[in-house]
TrEMBL record, chain A:
Matching Gene3D superfamilies: NagB/RpiA/CoA transferase-like
Domain of life: Bacteria
Domain LUD: 64-240
Protein name: Lactate utilization protein C
Name of a matching Pfam family: LUD_dom
Automatic annotation (TrEMBL), chain B:
4Fe-4S ferredoxin-type domain boundaries: 302-333
Swiss-Prot/TrEMBL keywords: 4Fe-4S, Electron transport, Iron, Iron-sulfur, Metal-binding, Repeat, Transport
Name of the protein in its database record: Iron-sulfur cluster-binding protein
Any Pfam family matching the protein: Fer4_8
PANTHER family: LACTATE UTILIZATION PROTEIN B
Gene3D superfamilies: Alpha-helical ferredoxin (1.10.1060.10), NagB/RpiA/CoA transferase-like (3.40.50.10420)
Organism (species): Paenibacillus cookii
Length: 241, 499
């Protein structure tokens, strides 16, 4: 495929600005306004009022998250501290007969020192500068390891945002996903995680924010549940703390 | 794409009703989804409050669509998105083809998008020699079968395991057993290669968040993530009304949509894509295009009867609840959308209500669709408005029109009415057997095909009326002493506080 053509894109953008006037103008006209209106008052923003006060205690949150993750077909585990994590990952890697891992390029994950715990496996950290290389490694890797940015107990969901060090492919391409979730990042409601995402300023806003609630699944063949259709078929959630 | 034969909904429904597997599969699946929804909403509690909030947010956004769409465009552009506008479906296909042709793209991988069905994007790519592959498992199956989706959430609902094995075997070049794991495993390997090869990823959009210019996609398989992660170019087709103002509002939609669609608390994946990959990111598309599609949607704006149609979040709950859909399946409906929402949306989007008029009749107006709708769209009322407009525009069948004119004449004059009843009493003698009419001749056929018509009585109600009133007057009995004393007792007991 040819390279991106800035001139072509500039032409499309010029056309788009023209088309936009007519497009938005038509909507405003149909709504009985001469032009696009000013910011309206938005009295119904977000969840119903009663929901804002719904709060679970720490243990309840963790219990609820684990129940939901398990119900979705995933494997939740509780670990007292980060020092216990390498051992659990080693066990999972052996059970799954993994030969290689890829992880987000984060100090918390580097400090697990998987290289010394599982010396027989090849280990990689995501490298944003090497697009093709990182993608290939991810595609070949058996296990992807991520640190969750946030988690929501009520739905059993983790949130993973993309960055130079946090490739989207890490939680997507390998067959096995291991998500490390520090207990203090666990909230009751999904909305708590969302408002934290929304508060990131535009210039640092991540291109991909992924909410993950278990293994990839489909019921498209005669309503029969299949796991691991495109994404990971085994999803581990390690709650730490 | 091939749909079952038949030019109108009655004929297509008849074809569908002869397919036993289809009937069972649709019933089973819709029942499963419906029960799933029931359990998920009951478990959640306060469902009505969430539903009302969902309605409020959607209604507010649509009422100020000019504002929110402008914000979305502005914020998406600021993140590097190329935004395009498609007043008609064909404009969307043209813009997507322009982008593909200019870059010399050879293949496109698609995730599920109802808008792409609306604008016939696969056919457009095919015409210019670009391979366009559906990657949602169900969509992939029906693409191999060359059929359109029959359910908004489970598109291959009408295919059984053996049919699917046959389709995939042809693709594999070897015989695959009809086992779910094997078939899904084959699709995974095959499509994984396609993802890695593809130049363009094409996605739909469940919600566009105005405050950040984010495209939100709900899915279970991970194919939409693949489509928006691996290829160099991402093209997203977005219906112009898909917006919500803020991320806070997304919590409401994330509560309503998965529960209503599949009975899940959450779909396995929900992705918020905000612009192409940042310069330093290692994956994600280098170029991102969002094509905003009108294609008849703006016609509903400002229309008091139909504007709420734009509140729809495409969950499919109304299909699962609809007794008519559950019997005839999705292919009996013309156009991209089936079930109650399709019955209203198809004529609305197509402007020419005349051409699609018969679909408004494929409903019993029971209101189950409204009860099921997570944003409370009064679909059954809209079906009545549609029928109403159809009559106003004079698009009713000539026979029905004539019958209505005749009815007006008869009801306008008692002399004509009495003559007609007499004629009926005499005329029916040819048809009545055992007190009922079973004959399927002429206009009676539509009724007698499934049930019998009771014969007209020898004497009509009007003829009996004089006799009945006289009898009633004569039978009036004055109160006896015994009755009187009983009444007195009752009155006294009440006065004392008894019953």
């Amino acid at each position: 495929m040819a390279k991106s053509d800035p001139e072509f894109l500039a032409r499309l953008d010029r056309e788009s600005r023209e088309a936009e006037k007519r497009f938005i103008g038509n909507i405003a006209h149909r709504l009985g306004r001469p032009a696009a209106g000013p910011a309206p008052v938005h009295p119904y923003r977000g969840a119903p009022d009663f929901w804002a006060s719904y709060e679970l205690g720490t243990e309840e949150k963790i219990g609820r998250f684990m129940d939901n993750w398990r119900a979705a077909g995933g494997y939740p585990e509780r670990i007292a501290s980060m020092s216990g994590v390498p051992e659990v990952i080693a066990r999972i890697a052996k059970e799954r007969q993994a030969r290689s891992t890829i992880r987000q390029n984060l100090p918390e994950l580097a400090s697990l020192q998987l290289e010394s715990v599982l010396p027989e496996l090849s280990h990689h950290a995501w490298n944003g500068r090497d697009h093709e290389g990182s993608l290939n490694i991810c595609e070949q890797a058996d296990v992807g390891i991520v640190l969750a940015d946030h988690a929501a107990a009520y739905t059993g969901t983790i949130v993973v945002a993309s960055s130079a060090d946090k490739g989207r492919s890490v939680s997507l391409l390998p067959n096995v996903l291991i998500a490390v979730i520090p207990a203090e990042r666990m909230y009751t409601r999904l909305g708590e995680a969302m408002s934290r995402v929304a508060s990131i300023p535009a210039e640092r806003f991540p291109a991909g924010v992924h909410f993950i609630s278990g293994p990839s699944r489909s019921s498209d063949i005669e309503n029969d549940l299949t796991i691991g259709v495109h994404g990971p078929g085994a999803a581990y959630a390690l709650i730490v703390g | 794409m091939s749909k079952p034969q038949g030019s109108n909904v009655k004929e297509r429904a008849r074809t569908a009703l002869q397919d036993e597997f289809l009937i069972d599969a649709v019933k089973f699946t819709t029942e499963r989804l419906k029960n799933g929804k029931k359990a998920a909403t009951a478990e959640h509690g306060n469902w009505e409050e969430w539903r009302e909030r969902g309605r409020q947010i959607r209604a507010h956004t649509v009422a100020h669509l000019d504002y929110y769409l402008s914000r979305f465009i502005e914020n998406a552009r600021a993140q590097g998105v190329h935004v395009h506008f498609a007043p008609e479906g064909k404009d969307a296909a043209r813009i997507a083809m322009d982008i593909a042709k200019h870059r010399g793209a050879k293949s496109v991988v698609k995730s599920k998008s109802m808008v792409s069905e609306e604008v016939h994007i696969n056919e457009a790519f095919e015409q210019i020699g670009i391979e366009s592959i559906e990657s949602d498992l169900g969509e992939y199956i029906i693409q191999l079968a060359n059929e359109p989706p029959s359910h908004i959430i489970i598109p291959a609902i009408h295919k059984n395991r053996r049919q699917i094995a046959e389709l995939l075997s042809k693709e594999a070049g070897e015989t695959l057993p009809p086992e779910t794991q094997v078939l899904a495993g084959f699709a995974r390997r095959k499509l994984r290669d396609k993802f890695l090869e593809a130049d363009i990823g094409l996605t739909g959009c469940n919600f566009g968040i105005a405050e950040t210019g984010t495209v939100v996609i709900f899915e279970n398989e991970g194919n939409a993530r693949m489509v928006s992660t691996v290829p160099k170019i991402q093209i997203t087709l977005m219906g112009m009304e898909r917006l919500i103002p803020t991320w806070d509002d997304l919590e409401v939609m994330a509560t309503l949509l998965p529960r209503s669609a599949t009975g899940q608390k959450m779909t396995m994946y929900m992705s918020g894509i905000t612009g192409p990959k940042r310069t330093e990111d290692g994956d994600g598309p280098e170029e991102m295009h969002v094509i905003i599609v009108d294609n008849g949607r703006s016609l509903q704006l400002g229309d008091p009867d139909f504007q709420e149609l734009l509140n729809c979040i495409r969950c499919g709950a109304c299909l699962n609840a609809c007794p008519v859909y559950r019997h005839i399946g999705g292919h009996s409906y013309p156009g991209t959308y089936s079930g109650p929402i399709g019955a209203v949306l198809t004529p609305a989007l197509n402007k020419n209500a005349e051409e699609w008029h018969d679909i408004a009749n494929a409903s019993s107006l029971c209101g189950a669709c409204y009860e099921a709708c997570p944003v409370k769209i009064p679909l059954h009322d809209m079906l009545v408005y549609l029928r109403n407009r159809k009559v106003e525009r004079g698009v009713t069948a000539p026979g029905e029109k004539m019958a209505m004119r005749g009815f007006k004449m008869l009801m306008g004059s008692h002399a004509w009415f009495e003559r007609a009843v007499k004629a009926g009493q005499l005329g029916q003698k040819l048809l009545v057997r055992g007190g009922v009419i079973k004959s399927r001749i002429g206009p009676l056929g539509g009724w007698t095909a499934y049930r019998h018509i009771p014969a007209l009585p020898k004497k009509s109600f009007r003829e009996q009326w004089t006799k009945v009133t006289a009898e009633a007057e004569n039978s009036f009995k004055p109160m006896t002493d015994e009755m009187k004393s009983r009444m007195e007792k009752i009155v006294q007991s009440r006065a004392k506080g008894g019953h």
